[in-house]
Every structure is written in C-alpha cells, then in structure tokens.
C-alpha cells in the first residue's frame, strides 16, 4: 500500500440481511498497517486511513459463534469522507456442507447439434437471467435506501454525542434530564414501566442509532435497565429509585 500524506475517514453502518436493522457489537476489521479493529457498539464504525487499497471485514457473533459476515474492498484515492455500509449475510461453517447436501444442478448448455424443436434450454436460460436481473435490481434499491437512512443516523448520532437536543429539566427527585431523555422516561412510564426498544423507537421517531445512545445514557444515569430478549431489548424503568421522575 502506498503511503500518502492525506488521510481519509471511512465510516458506515452494519445491517442484518434479513431485518435491515443495525447490528450492535459487530467486530469491524481493516487490513491497514498496523491492522485496526473496533467493536461497532451501536452498529456504526469509523476508521482514519491513508490512501491505498483495503479490505474491510465485519463479523457478528451470537452465543460465541459467527452468525453473519461481510467483506468489502475499498480503494482510497484521496483524502475526504468515505461512506461504506455493509449488509451482513449468514455465515455457514464449511464443515456443515458436503457434496451430499448440495442439490443436483441440471446442465443448461445445449449440445453442439441440438435436435430440431429443442428450445427448452433456451427458455430456461432466459428465465434464469431475467430472474437474476430482477433480484440484483431489488438488492441495489434496498442498499441505496439503507444508505440514505444510515447517513441520517450517522448525523443524528454525531450531534447527540456533542450536545443534547434540548435544555435540561430537573425532576422531582433532583435528577436533571435533557428534554429528549425526559420524553423517553415519560413514554416508558406511560407503558407501565417497561417497553421494547422497537416500540420505543416507533413512539419517538428517532433513528435506531440515536435511540440506542439515549437508552445507554439513561442506563449510565441509573434510571433504566436494559435486558436482552431474543433479538430485541426490553427497557425497564427503575421505579424504586426514580418513581417520581
């Protein structure tokens, strides 16, 4: 890799291939010199890299086993800002695959001298090509749509990390909260003291990345607790200490 004075910022988001949700705690690696890696705690990552050609790898683990994976090549030609989102696909261990598990694939190549009227192979090839083009078009559409969403999420997250969205309010027990965090607490209280992260996001209409940051902020303040349930999270208000918030 060629050395250069200019340094580029490479950032993006990692998504689940099935739900298109941000994958928290994904490990993102890049083969820079020296190699760099980070845990994308909220599904977002960022690297500063000089000019060169790099391979970025994203690995998501469940119960200690690799569940999904993505590898992308990136060519940095000058300094600036590079956005690279990754849609992680399921990872299948090679040991679980053998020849007996693979379906038989019919031969689609016609004989050199086909029999008159044998047009079945041509029709099959046409259908396969047309289907492949439709699938590729759908994938491109979804990726472009998610890139727009990730750009919005990245901006919201950056703004949240530097300043709160509103002035702080002082609660009955002396706890000082910004307006957006107070809104989250009010929603949880109105929902009986507990709510799923998905329901919370639907009620406040923020990006998933910002909602995750707000919940983490409330956890650090000792106001809520987050519990993992399946592939989602349940947010519980600590009534004993903060029932008057």
UniProtKB/TrEMBL annotation:
Sequence intervals crossing the membrane: 125-144
SUPFAM superfamilies given in the database record: Carboxypeptidase regulatory domain-like (SSF49464), Winged helix' DNA-binding domain (SSF46785)
UniProt keyword list: Membrane, Secreted, Transmembrane, Transmembrane helix
Domain of life according to the entry: Archaea
Record domain Gram-positive cocci surface proteins LPxTG: where: 120-148
Domain DUF7343 span(s) in chain numbering: 179-237
Coiled coil location: none
Gene3D superfamilies with a match to the protein in the record: Winged helix-like DNA-binding domain superfamily/Winged helix DNA-binding domain
InterPro entries: CarboxyPept-like_regulatory, DUF7343, LPXTG_anchor, WH-like_DNA-bd_sf, WH_DNA-bd_sf
Protein name listed in UniProt: Putative membrane-associated protein/domain protein
């Amino acid at each position: 890799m060629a050395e250069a004075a200019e340094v580029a910022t490479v950032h993006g988001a990692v998504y689940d291939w099935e739900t298109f949700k941000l994958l928290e705690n994904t490990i993102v690696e890049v083969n820079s010199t020296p190699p760099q890696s980070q845990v994308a705690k909220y599904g977002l990552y960022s690297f500063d890299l000089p000019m060169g050609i790099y391979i970025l790898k994203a690995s998501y683990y469940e119960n200690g086993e690799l569940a999904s994976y993505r590898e992308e090549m990136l060519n940095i030609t000058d300094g600036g800002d590079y956005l690279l989102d990754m849609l992680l696909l399921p990872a299948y261990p090679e040991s679980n695959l053998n020849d007996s598990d693979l379906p038989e694939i019919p031969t689609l190549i016609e004989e050199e001298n086909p029999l008159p009227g044998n047009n079945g192979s041509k029709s099959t090839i046409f259908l396969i090509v047309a289907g492949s083009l439709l699938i590729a078009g759908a994938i491109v559409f979804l990726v472009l749509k998610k890139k727009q969403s990730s750009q919005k999420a990245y901006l919201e997250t950056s703004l949240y990390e530097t300043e709160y969205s509103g002035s702080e309010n002082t609660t009955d027990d002396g706890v000082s909260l910004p307006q957006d965090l107070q809104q989250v607490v009010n929603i949880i209280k109105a929902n009986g003291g507990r709510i799923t992260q998905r329901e919370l996001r639907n009620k406040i209409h923020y990006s998933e990345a910002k909602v995750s940051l707000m919940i983490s902020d409330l956890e650090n303040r000792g106001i809520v607790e987050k519990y993992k349930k399946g592939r989602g999270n349940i947010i519980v208000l600590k009534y004993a200490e903060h029932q008057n918030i």
